[in-house]
Amino acid sequence: MISAAAREIRDGELVFVGMRLPLLAFNLAKSIWAPNAIGIFEAGLLRENVCLEYIHTMCDLPLQTGASWLTGLLEVMSCLQRGEVDLGIIGGAQVDSSGNVNSTLVKTVEGARRLPGSGGACDIAVLSKRLVVVMPLEARRVRRRVDYITSPCGAEEVTLVTDKALFKKGRGDERLRVVGIYKGVEPGDVLREAGEMVSKEELEEVEEVKPPTEEELRVLRRLDKEGFWTRRRG
User: Fold this and answer.
1) Confidence band, pLDDT 50/70/90 cuts, at residue 227
2) In terms of DSSP bridges, do strands 165-169 and 157-161 run parallel, antiparallel, or are they unpaired?
3) CB distance 95 to 150 below 8 Å
4) Are 50 and 31 spatial neighbours (Cβ–Cβ below 8 Å)?
5) How far apart are CA 91 and CA 216, in angstroms?
6) For residue 233, is pLDDT > 60?
7) Sheet of strand 94-96: strand arrangement
8) What's the Cα-to-Cα distance from 212 to each of 2, 3, 16, 82, 219, rounded to whole Å?
9) Of the ranges 25-39, 47-61, 130-144, 156-170, which one carries the lowest mean pLDDT score?
10) Counting Cβ atoms within 10 Å, is residue 127 exposed (0-12), middle (13-18) or buried (19+)?
11) How far apart are CA 36 and CA 30, in angstroms?
């Protein structure tokens, strides 16, 4: 999932990087095929070089060390409002077939459950030229319609990166469509979790997503030394 998200980053792009897995995806891309990509972070940071130290959040000191711009929230969000951001990468609790993201509340049998919220994800989703959403493929998270629209999709192109398949929505498309399945994942696995968004006929024609290369794995292990994000044990 991290590798697939990282591959959406092109060299030379200005990338607004969200929390958690997007942090690792950006550093992976910048370490290999996108050395000239520039990362911008909601905490008020802009980086032109790779952060080689282990980080949990965008506020960690290693991310600040060596940054090209240490500023504030208003300044970095203004880059979005001026139309300068090529790609935004965010996570969330739910995403729907239109690319809208929910980070605010979900409906359960016990009633509505309030979530922490989105931070700047609304601005990122609306004002980035392209958007990548990263989250596991689960029926409760990938929906025909989200329980609450926190971040309405305004990007021209959207990619949903999950742990089983890739979905894309291009210019003029009305909804996300599955475009690739990971090696070892059966179409039935995707249909079971994303049945509201895909059909059996669609899944019969999709290609296999190339697995991470040895170089990508080597870089990921260096960037995530403790296995915090990649869930390594022992």
Assistant:
1) confident
2) antiparallel
3) no
4) yes
5) 21
6) no
7) 101-102, 94-96, 142-143
8) 9, 6, 23, 35, 11
9) 47-61
10) buried
11) 7
Position 231 scores a pLDDT of: 73
Q: Note the pLDDT of residue 234.
A: 44
State the CATH architecture for 2-223.
3-Layer(aba) Sandwich (3.40)
Query: What is the token pair recorded at 219?
Result: 């870089």
Q: Where are the domains of the chain?
A: 2-223
The predicted-structure confidence for 25-63, as pLDDT tens digits, reads as follows: 999 999 999 999 999 999 999 999 988 787 888 888 888
Looking at residue 213, what DSSP letter applies? P
The whole-angstrom distance between residue 127's C-alpha and the CA centroid of its chain comes to: 15
Helix or strand holding residue 41 (H, E): strand 38-41
